[in-house]
Specification:
The chain has 182 residues and is α+β, with helices and mostly antiparallel strands. The chain contains 7 helices and 4 strands; from the N terminus they run ααβααβαβααβ. A 4-stranded antiparallel β-sheet has the order 1-2-4-3. The N and C termini lie far apart (35 Å). The structure holds flavin mononucleotide (FMN). Flavin mononucleotide (FMN) binds next to β3. The site of flavin mononucleotide (FMN) has 9 residues, from β3.
């Protein structure tokens, strides 16, 4: 797929079939992620691939409860208070991109890896969506021990992937505000 085609047409997908994403496809997405640039070439990203439905459901419940304690936006609170709202939209897999430990630029590095992963997913016909709702929980002591990852890791980008049942229309972008100098 042409790069500009992928950039222009990738969407945050929130409606998935139950079909699993094939192992080689998941591996190709992680391969794309690690091609991202990183500050001082530290490549701090680490990955957790979670495909256990019961664990995904549990994380959805616990992340919602934790998030509700602090969520100021009424629209988001309404979602979180809805028992039928699944923060992972029942996607068959979650890929968490985390940094090995806290250090300057690790969040930027992992976010760049995340964008590569989402573009590669789109090129492979796989839907994806970054789930910010899960981030604080997965970065908490409870979330890390549930995943069996070291407490030193920094959870940055929880990304669901799956085969899209439907794809939403694009959100029109605001015209870029640019101060041109020279
Ligand atoms: C940091 C970040 C956090 C996000 N968190 C969520 C989330 O928790 N739930 C969700 O449904 N979408 C989430 N999204 C997806 C955005 O809502 C989506 O990218 C945006 O509406 C633009 O749509 P598009 O990606 O289809 O262009 C998140 C995106 C980013 C970059």
């Amino acid at each position: 797929m042409d790069l500009m085609d992928a950039i222009n047409n990738r969407r945050a997908v929130r409606d998935y079939t139950a079909e699993a994403v094939e192992q080689p496809v998941l591996e190709s997405l992680i391969h794309a992620a690690v091609q991202a640039p990183s500050a001082v070439d530290t490549q701090p990203w680490r990955f957790v691939v979670l495909r256990e439905r019961q664990l995904l459901d549990r994380i959805s419940r616990e992340a919602k409860a934790q998030r509700l304690l602090h969520e100021p936006m009424a629209e988001l609170r309404a979602h979180l208070e809805n028992p039928g709202f699944h923060i992972f939209y029942h996607a068959p897999a979650l890929i968490l991109i985390a940094a090995e430990h806290q250090a300057p630029w690790v969040v930027e590095d992992c976010a760049l890896a995340a964008q590569n992963l989402m573009l590669a997913a789109h090129a492979a016909g796989v839907g994806s969506c970054w789930i910010g709702f899960a981030q604080a929980y997965l970065d908490s002591a409870a979330g890390k021990s549930l995943l069996g990852i070291p407490q030193s890791w920094v959870a940055v980008a929880p990304i669901i992937v799956g085969h899209p049942r439907s794809v939403p229309p694009p959100h029109p972008r605001h015209a870029p505000q640019v101060r041109w100098i020279g």
